[in-house]
Amino acid sequence: TAVAAASNVPEDTLVSATDGNHGYGLAHVGNLFHRTVKIYMPIGTVPMRSERIRKLGASVEVTDFNYDKCVDLAKVFAAETNGLFVQDTALESDTEEERRIPLYIMQGYMTILEEAFDQNPS
Q1: H helix and E strand count, the chain
Q2: Bridge partners, residue 17, by sequence
Q3: Between the N and C ends of the chain, which has fewer C-beta atoms within 10 Å?
Q4: How confident is the model over 38-80, as pLDDT tens digits?
Q5: Residue 1's pLDDT band (boundaries 50, 70, 90)?
Q6: What is the dihedral of CA 3, 74, 100, 119, to 10 degrees?
Q7: Sign of the C-alpha dihedral, residues 85, 91, 96, 100?
Q8: β-sheet with 84-85: strand ranges across
Q9: 25-34, 86-95, 103-112: which has the highest mean pLDDT?
Q10: Which of 29, 90, 57, 106 is nearest to 11 (CA)?
């Protein structure tokens, strides 16, 4: 499961870019498993979104850049600090290894949907 995988991550820092929900979820995982979390957010981010991520203990940097540039910043920061880049999007230029985490995230979304449909089949 994703929870078991998160608890076994050797990296101390989880790094990502978000405009809200993904960063909130990652901050929750970091809080749960005592990991440092660094989040980059794009210009125009609603302050309430960044604050709720900070309340879970994550370091949040609201940048002067768009979302795509925040993804680039997060990827570079993770590489420079030996952190784990946990992004919910993949690019054609990504390696097979770099595409694994977004795939796991998508599989998690499908699990949520399956469980919701199982509980309310109508």
Answers
A1: 5, 4
A2: 40
A3: C
A4: 999 999 999 999 999 999 999 999 999 999 999 999 999 999 9
A5: very low
A6: 40
A7: positive
A8: 59-62, 36-41, 13-17, 84-85
A9: 25-34
A10: 29
Report the percent of the chain where pLDDT is more than 90: 66
Q: Half-sphere exposure of residue 79, counting CA atoms within 13 Å on the CB side?
A: 7
Closest CA to 37 of 9, 3, 64: 9
Task: Choose among 30, 33, 79: nearest CA to 58.
Answer: 30
In the block, tokens 């499961």 appear at 1
Torsion, CA 30, CA 98, CA 107, CA 45, rounded to 10: 60
CA quadruple 100, 106, 112, 115: dihedral sign? negative
